[in-house]
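Quick illustration, no need to memorize.
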Amino acid sequence: MRRLLTRISAAAIFMLSAGLVEAASLRVAPTSLELIAPDSAAVLNLHNDAKRPINVQIRVFRWRQAGGVEQLEPTLDVVASPPSTKIGPNADYVVRVVRVSKAPVGAEESYRLLVDELPDPSRKKAGTVALVLRYSVPVFFRNPDAKPSDVSFSLSRAEGRLVLTARNNGESRLRLSNLTLVQGSKKLGARSGLVGYVLGGATMQWPLGTAKSLAASPVTLKGQSDLGPFDAPVAIKGR
């Protein structure tokens, strides 16, 4: 569990079977939570779109990034109440997310709330696939005096792929989406939608195109962040 990788957006888990697909029913809002100390509690709203009850499991993990890899670790510092429930047909349910640790928030703490719609064995049918949703909701507890994100970017090649490295020297996360690498008038690579987060004090890496070599001219990264659109210089490591 210590090095459990998760997707930043909702992930669909397919049960091993073949044939027809039975759609999942769970919806979750909001898609992220941020609490500024001394606030320590928030709510997550669940909704069941189905005409039958569904079973839901809610778990909290400490979220870290090390060496460009996401890590989820068991934690007792933040809890979800209740940790599991049954939601009636077309019904809403409220889950409380509470930081129970008495230690002060030093800068920004990052967690992932995994919300799973559990398969119903009694509804399993031959020749069908049960489509079960997992939502991975980012949860942040931030000290109001935490330093803002301060991210630098570099580009390297590995096995013919371009790898973008983001290093955050600040204390707050930065959310990145719709990234494009440009060198002069040439587009080196791009990724649409949410690319990911780089947490405070952490380093993350993402593949972002292919290239046999890189020219000597400057490279620029264009994209969107939770602070708005940006253009950032990119250092080249090896050509």
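Residues 1-22 have pLDDT under 50 and may be disordered.
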